[in-house]
Amino acid sequence: MTERPDGSANRPHTDGLPKTQPLRPSQVRQNVNAKRMLMRLVQGDSPPTAPMNIVDRLAGSPYANPTIQVMGVDASARKTIDFALHLAEVMFRYGAGALEVETSMIAVTAALGLKNVEVDITNQSVAINYAPKDQTPITLLRVVRSWTNNYAGLAQVHQLVTDIVAGGVGRDEAVRRLNEIIRSAKPFPRWMVTMAFGIFAAVFVGVLGGGIGASAVAFGSNILISLLSRQLARWRTADFFNTMACAFLVTFIALMLRWAGVEIAPSIVVAGGILLLLPTGRLVSSVQDAINGFPVTAAGRFLSTLLTFGAIVAGIGVAVVVGTLIGSEVLDVTQVFPDAYPLWIRAILIAIAVVAIGVTEQTQMRLLIPTAAVGIVGFFVLWGVGEAGLGDRLSPAVAAVVIGLLGRVVALKLGAPQLVVAVPAALILLPGLTIFRSMYALTVEGGNILLGAGGMLNAGAIVLGVAAGIVLGDNLARPLTKGLSSNERRRVRRR
């Protein structure tokens, strides 16, 4: 190795090694883009501890991607929050679930221009916290203390929220429309609702296997319990004692008619009578709330549901004891009833029963026939999977999934929430006869406590399976209904 004049050693020749060329600007940009893409794949679009934007809760709902109305709403934020709370109160009172109420409030506040809003729903209370940066926060709370059957009003509120999200309705117009919904009369008068109670019991007794005589008794007894329930409500009687009195009356009437020599099966009449007393909508909403992440609200509704079942048990037990003291014969709750009508007649009876339920729930007239169609499809699915041997527990759950799926599709096409269609259509799946037999064994026949407890667990599994099936069907239908809300918005914009 030789030295250069500057004192450094001469390095060996490297002509055999490939020479590196300087990178061109396009290559530098490509390397930078590749590094950015790799970082996104590894780290994600946002830090793992970043909070979820509240508007992201609208994903999968009919109100996704709301149209924001930019008009300086922050100056009157209190009015917007008051409207959102009033909307939530009305929805809860009409029977909506917690998730539907929350998404509606988020969609409305976002569409009306409010940012930095948090919504909290706990059982009967709804709270909104509005905390803009560098300003005094506003927190308002509303408590819901009353409920009513008004699916027509719930559908109108759903349509109002859709119009607000589409950008076609401002706040003042929305307040006016909501007040009109509250003041508007229900679709059906009271006498028609009373008749619907009796018609449902009559046709459902026919579906269970009762003849014309049993259906007639069920019709008359349910007319009476409807009138009794209305009178007790005027006297401000608690719901527990109201339900207990109705269960007592329907059971006592069936026992006394049998004691008088009328050839009917009291157990099947009672089963058809107590079915409308079951808190179906409340149970479906509680399961939906539990699945969707509202445990406190779900627990409150579950407790209310258990109290209703307890009231039915107490009413049946007292009626049987009184009937036995008078001299009525002991009921044979193990009696099996064969089908009294062929399949096609039972399908017609199911359609009539679903329409009657819709009338009692004050559903809009235009939704009655589609709801009956969904109920018929659910009935045939129930019959088909039962014939396939899936069993008494799994068959109603499978039928409920189909009803929940079709209910969402049909309801959104007609501008209504899924609950309005799915709950009346699914009421036919509930095990009224099993519930009655189990309650009878628990309250009257002391030696059959285990049999009654097992029957109630079986009936409870069916009821929970039906409720969960409706929720599952609703979730499965979401990919199929993404375009329905956008179509609704396009119709609103063209007005």
Oligomerization status of the protein chains: single chain
Largest sheet: 3 strands, antiparallel
Content of β-strand: under 5%
Nearest-integer average pLDDT: 78
Strand order of the largest sheet: 1-2-3
* Share in helix: 55-70%
* Through-space gap between termini: 91 Å
SSE run: HHHEEEHHHHHHHHHHHHHHH
Helix segment tally: 18
Decide which structural class fits the backbone. mainly alpha
Low-confidence stretches: 41-52, 486-495
Q: Judging from the principal axes of the Cα atoms, what is the shape? A: globular
Radius of gyration: 30 Å
Describe this structure in words.
The protein has 495 residues and is mainly alpha-helical. The protein contains 18 helices and three strands. The chain has a three-stranded antiparallel sheet with strand order 1-2-3, with helices on one face. Helix 2 (77-93) runs parallel beside helix 5, helix 13 packs antiparallel against helix 14 (391-413) and helix 14 (391-413) packs antiparallel against helix 15 (418-426). The protein is globular and about 95 Å long. The termini are far apart.
